[in-house]
Sequence to fold (1188 residues):
Amino acid sequence: MKKHIHSFIYALVCCTLAVNAFAQTAPQTDPDLNGMRAIGTPANPKVKWGWNYYMDYAGFNKLMQELAKAYPDLVKYESIGKSFQGREMYVITVTDFKSGKPENKPAFWIDGNIHANELQGTQFAMYTAWYLAESFGKMDFVTDMLKGRTFYILPSLNPDAHENFIYKSNTTSSSRSGMMPLDDDGDGLVDEDTYDDLDGDGNIVTMRRKSPTGRYKVDPDFPGRMILAKPDEQGEYEMLGFEGIDNDGDGRVNEDNPGAYDPNRDWGWGWQPDYIQGGALFYPGTLPETKNVKKFFYSHPNIAGAQSYHNFGGMFLRPPGAEEDAMYVPQSDIAVYDVIGKTGEKMIPGYKYYVLWKDLYTVYGGEIDWIGLGRGVFMFSNEINTSWRMFNKNSTENRNQNSEFEEFDKFLLLGDGYVKWKPIKHPQYGDIEIGGTKRNYIRNTPGFLLEEEGHRNMAFTMLHAYHMPKLEIIDIKTKALANGLTEVTAVVQNQRAIPTHSAHDLRFKIERPDYITLKNAQVLAGMIVENEDLGITREQKYNPQTIEVANIAGTVGGGGGGGGFGGFGGGGNSVKVRWIVKGKADKWTVEVDSRKGGIVSKTL
Amino acid sequence: MIRQLLYGGVLALACVAQTLEAQTTYNSHAQLSGRLKNLSTKFNALASVSSIGKSAGGRDLWLLTLGKGDATKKPAILIVAGLDGTHLAGSELAIQTAEKMLGAANADSVAKLLETKTFYFLPSMNPDAQEQFSAKLKYERTTNDSKTDDDRDGRVDEDPFEDLNGDGVVSWIRVEDAAGTYVASKEDPRILVKADPSKGESGKYLVYTEGIDNDKDGVYNEDGAGGVNPEKNFTFDYQIFTTGSGEHAASEPEVRALLDFLYRAPNIFAVLTFGPNNNLSEAPRFDAAKVARRILTGPLAKDAKAMEQVSKLYNGRTALKDAPTMPQTRGNFSQTAYYHAGRYSFTTPGWWTPKVEAPRDTTRRAAATAPTTPSPTAPAATGGPAGGGRMGGGGAAAATSTANASEDDARFLKWADKEKLTGVYVDWKTIQHPDFPGQKVEVGGIVPFSKLNPPVSYLTAVADKHVKFLTGLGAQMPEIQLVNVKTESLGNGLTRITATVINKGLMPTYAEIGDRVRFVQKVKTELKLGAGQAIVSGKRLNLRAALASDESEEYTWLVSGTGKLTIETGCPTAGVKSADVTLK
Fold:
């Protein structure tokens, strides 16, 4: 086999050389690449990186440093503050710094890993930064994207627990919390009865003990799995929960683990206390990590789209997280979500476009609602990885009956997914056995699927970012009036699906209006042209040089336009404004300054 | 006991007379800071001052702690004031209450309380807004120094108040206009009320807060200096996108500082807020429908009972009458302290306009005691035309909060007349207004602050009454005891131990809602074993729900071994007791 590959490559190289010898005009492949670039992927990148493992904190920081060094005009990073344990939280800014200031372009936010055991988010966030930097100037789509848009990327929203998950002993689901110590069991002590890794392999698996009173037996098809004995059968084992000891002698095992709260219930929309919404702390923003992100959002009002990566289940989740907030996502905003979400279902087979509260569960105080409803930004949260991806179909049986993960482990992972049962001495339970799922299986995508799933998710954020407002001044007309006055009329169009203000934003005036200014001119009066043909205009008395339009609608949704009250100045996705100016046209410049649509200008 | 208390009160007055002597008006932040520091110096064995954080404007949020020994180890009451920035009387009351308690520290009842309990005072939790009282231009301000674009037009603080008649206070303007909707009240012509067509009235005036429409948006003074109103920024029933409520709950440093302090002080049993809300003269009632849902909107059954008990204590101890209804407001601290932090939470304005009997007209009586919530007939505030803000309502004039109902105004002016108060009303005076050329515009009306804040001299007696209430509440607080501790030797080094944990106080160990709140520590009974001892039966550590007054629970253990062991029981809000047992 190996020999075969060698000869294949040899043939390829010969072939290339031969072609070059004959015709110098033949398409050039990358000189360092011994082969052909696979379509869609940066081959021979400046920053070489593997995408089939999970980076630690040092790893993703190193990657961002190398990217910033290799592409100083495309990648910069800055700390937005420290985590609870004092780690710097770096946000990477990716944009073409040579074509406009990053803050003057519509921006897309990506974060991952707020639940620290959900590692793919970090990986895909970094893949996006790497892919964009490596593809700029080589792929037109990416080049245009970075000229006109800014990406703010936070690879881990929970870096302390990210390290805990990778370097300390955990289950597949532990280390979801942050690392702020809390008393979970009400005894006045903090984090005093954590999991205990009895065999020191980094995986907290399950404990079983042979017992005449046990109701469990070994699954005959998959000996790693324990199943309930049938009603007419005697059991062989009793199950003793996750690997651990009663460290504080209170009769309970593993009841006070590190942290034990939910950073994704710490956000400023619909916040509810712990007894209503498990995992909440004192108030939205109790944690430094969420506080840092909020601060960044308020100082970067150009953020017009956002993605927060989670796992597991294969979903594109959109707000709201609670039924009572459904009224805050009106029909015209849903229409925009639909454009992106429904296309997403094609882009990532096995993923479903869902409404958080309706199709998954209720979340109070989640990030998705704070960004979506608190800031009025179109927001998706992707739940990465789904069992569909193992065999490209969904099992018709529920998890307790089906054997998808066991079969996938057997045939595709070749047995790498589980810790095999082994005997061990337990200080309280005596002779027991431990075994079960490795902490990096089930929720986190296996290596050989990781790059593919990362690329598909990245592509989904590109679709989302593509649809952020793109403003263009498509027409400026001047007309001489009597008494030395000139009438200037400008049409500004939004060429994408997302409006400069969501309907929810418009209703609550979350972001300020868009400003359209006629510069270098002596303006006497200004107005919004609501209907040119019928001669309907609305004058703006205060500061007429800068016309304030409430919104520039996008190509779908038909939300309120610049005129407000359902009237637009010029058409569905454009506004028309007019000034009456003293004198004749001379280097007059129309500038549009929109928080979420960026700054564009055109000179007469 | 009451006599002693009164005696103590007199002593207190004598002690603080020096500081009070010069005080004819409400304190600025600097004055208040000095006053607290002096107090902690003078009574250094009983009082200490620290800062729990800073306001948006960088002013210290002072905490005055009263009591002997380690404050954090004793059950506590927290007194909070000044969250509503227009309520200076609350701050003054809180400080005077502390001063009087310290002054009476030698009286038995107070001495015992300071020995066994902690009293935390946070007298000025919104100092940025309160400072407006001492500023050159005086207006009722509720917001801190955060920079906000109140009307969301992209311009910050572009439409403030203007002092059009140069008297240093912001009152009202009325414009004679054909489109006017207000008329002078028949009851008291100084007050403007909305014209009532059913009474044959037709509007004569437009009414606005004193100022100019600087940004020509048709709304007056809707975007002045500041900020966020902390009293709208707490987590319970937080109202989104309302002027002054902030970008999200707990966005403000004052709010976070207070909640951090409260959540991290598990010994705080109850909270008393001095502010323009009242749940003390009449306790909220239990309503099963309000507790049936996931999100509670009414007190739990046992808590409603306890609130009733405290309400009785309040009315009895203070002998205050005719209290205004003043319902709880959305996103305020008082409700958050109960529903979210899980503590008993009481609130009262402390002082309110006394009712003046009108003997000739008995039908007025009902009106005078009627609820004084904002009335839609009021010439401003929440329902009026003056407000601006994001939703087109509220606005800076909302600073006057409940203070603008016409009935409220009438009651106040009647009382002010009787007391011959000056400086509470500005007579209407004609001015030139740039927004209304050629029209008759007058400035006048009730002077800001005056309705919620009487001359300081009126508060001394009120503070005495609240000292009585607080000492009464302190005396009713729960007290865990460990009783009937018994050992029975079963032979061969095996001993059965039984002990009863009982609450001998007059209130439950903590509010029932505390049993739902993770951060409220439950009643814990623990066996602390000596060397060589082992538990054969029973749990080493037992947690249980709140104990009502006189409620008890018996615990029993089988222990092997000899020597001393300790039983410890209690919770931070009701104290911790222990007993040593020797196994033979």
